[in-house]
């Protein structure tokens, strides 16, 4: 089969992955911008198979992607900026376990649970301001975006007036239409900013996780290097807001499109089911980059050679009729919770899942609690979406707050 071009103009990445799954099968060759060849796994079975063999058959370390280093792929290929950092998502085995263990020590379930009152407070403040905005407001700008940014930045001590820059750099880095220059500038500025930020936190400690990491480093000098600290912040600040920003808005779109589901969620306080169903069928993480086979592998009958990059199509897995039935596309909170892969699987399973679930539940229950008649101010088909291989959500979402 000839490689299929990605992205497809005018089509969201989630739609492309689903279409490729249905038309071309569970493992398809793709061509990414810059004429870079890769593979895409599109079904629940193949996504699950690849993730389950992370660290054994597959590596996350870009050193195992020869085309990146042998001159095949140009040095300014924009995707390099997200796959070549030195963080959890580019490590395997013992290296990965060591770093994850260090972060987990700071990011304990107790610390996350203790965030609940503060997340509620930030949510309520945003909703108060939303109510003053008028009857039609852009929910992305005024709610789904500022909430996760405030939560993760507050947790790590990023000052309020600096937070929006992180959002802007993230937008450029995750977009699949950024030019090489834009991607390189955003990457350089973000790393420069984080270096300066850590320096300031060192000089002026606070009650935040960055200070916690600095203390851990000082107490036990050889364990966490300066470079590792920088990349921890890079990953956590990006992954910790981008995903949740889009999942809140995707879920609002789904609920507004089906008022009967919304009514059940409100009446039965079924927000946990809403969140799980959104992670399955409307996930903000549509594809994850990359896995590199460390030997030739057979996936659903297709041979993929060692070192050929595989993109993991989470949105294809979540809506796969072979796994979730003929109505897999339908957002239905009455489904039995049944092993979605929305937070990934295996060693790289989302480190922020408890925080994301907590934020999602508070955001949605509070939003619809305050504005029970909230509806979209445009049709579902008119909602504009981000262009990215990794994450997807509305760029703006005008809503009518009160019917
Ligand atoms: C709805 C929100 C979220 C979704 C859908 C999501 C999804 C994911 C997925 C699918 C992965 C696995 C990536 C892979 O296997 O390549 C992942 C990893 C990760 N996520 Fe999340 N995430 C969310 C929120 C968060 C938050 C709030 C944080 C904050 C700390 C976070 C931090 C991370 C980190 C650090 C990793 C890398 C873990 C590792 O490699 O060991 N995520 N996330």
Q: CATH homologous superfamily - what is it? A: Cytochrome P450
**Heteromolecules bound:** protoporphyrin IX containing FE
Order of helices and strands: EHEEHEHHHHEHHHHHHHHEEEEHHHEE
| Largest sheet, spatial ordering of strands | 1-2-3-9-6-4
Computed CA radius of gyration, to the nearest angstrom = 21 Å
Approximately what portion of the residues adopt beta-strand conformation?
5-15%
Number of helices: 17
Mean pLDDT over all positions? 95
By CATH reckoning, the class would read Mainly Alpha
CATH fold node name: Cytochrome p450
Helix and strand composition category: alpha+beta
Low-confidence stretches: none
Q: Please describe the biggest sheet, giving its number of strands, its sense, and whether it closes into a barrel.
A: 6 strands, mixed
How much helix, percentage-wise, in residues? 40-55%
* Strands, count: 11
Shape: globular
Measured distance between first and last alpha carbons = 51 Å
State the gist of this model.
With 403 residues, this protein is α+β, with helices and mostly antiparallel strands.
């Amino acid at each position: 089969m000839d490689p299929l071009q990605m992205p497809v103009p005018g089509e969201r990445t989630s739609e492309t992955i689903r279409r490729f799954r249905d038309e071309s099968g569970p493992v398809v060759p793709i061509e990414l911008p810059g004429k870079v060849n890769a593979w895409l796994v599109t079904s629940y079975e193949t996504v699950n198979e690849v993730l389950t063999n992370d660290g054994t058959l597959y590596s996350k370390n870009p050193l195992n992607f020869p085309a990146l280093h042998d001159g095949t792929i140009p040095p300014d290929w924009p995707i390099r900026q997200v796959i070549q950092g030195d963080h959890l998502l580019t490590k395997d085995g013992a290296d990965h376990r060591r770093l994850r263990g260090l972060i987990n020590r700071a990011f304990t379930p107790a610390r996350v649970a203790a965030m609940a009152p503060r997340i509620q407070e930030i949510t309520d403040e945003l909703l108060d301001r939303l109510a003053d905005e008028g009857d039609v407001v852009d929910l992305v700008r005024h709610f789904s975006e500022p909430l996760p940014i405030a939560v993760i930045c507050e947790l790590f001590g990023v000052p309020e007036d600096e937070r929006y820059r992180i959002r802007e750099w993230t937008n450029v880095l995750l977009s699949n239409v950024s030019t090489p220059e834009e991607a390189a500038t955003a990457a350089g500025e973000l790393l420069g900013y984080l270096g300066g930020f850590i320096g300031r936190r060192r000089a002026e400690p606070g009650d935040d996780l960055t200070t916690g990491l600095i203390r851990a480093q000082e107490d036990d000098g050889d364990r966490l290097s300066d470079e590792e600290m920088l990349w921890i912040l890079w990953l956590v600040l990006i992954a910790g807001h981008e995903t949740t920003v889009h999942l809140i808005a995707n879920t609002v779109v789904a609920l507004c499109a089906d008022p009967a589901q919304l009514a059940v969620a409100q009446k039965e306080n079924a927000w946990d089911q809403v969140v799980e169903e959104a992670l399955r069928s409307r996930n903000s993480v549509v594809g994850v980059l990359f896995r590199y086979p460390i030997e030739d592998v057979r996936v659903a009958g297709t041979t993929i050679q060692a070192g050929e990059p595989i993109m993991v199509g989470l949105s294809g897995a979540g809506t796969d009729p072979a796994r979730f039935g003929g109505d897999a596309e339908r957002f239905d909170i009455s489904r039995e919770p049944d092993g979605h892969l929305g937070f990934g699987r295996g060693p790289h399973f989302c480190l922020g899942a408890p925080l994301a679930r907590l934020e999602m539940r508070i955001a949605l229950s509070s939003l619809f609690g305050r504005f029970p008649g909230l509806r979209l101010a445009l049709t579902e088909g008119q909602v504009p979406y981000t262009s990215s291989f990794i994450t997807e959500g509305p760029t703006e979402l005008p809503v009518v707050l009160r019917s």
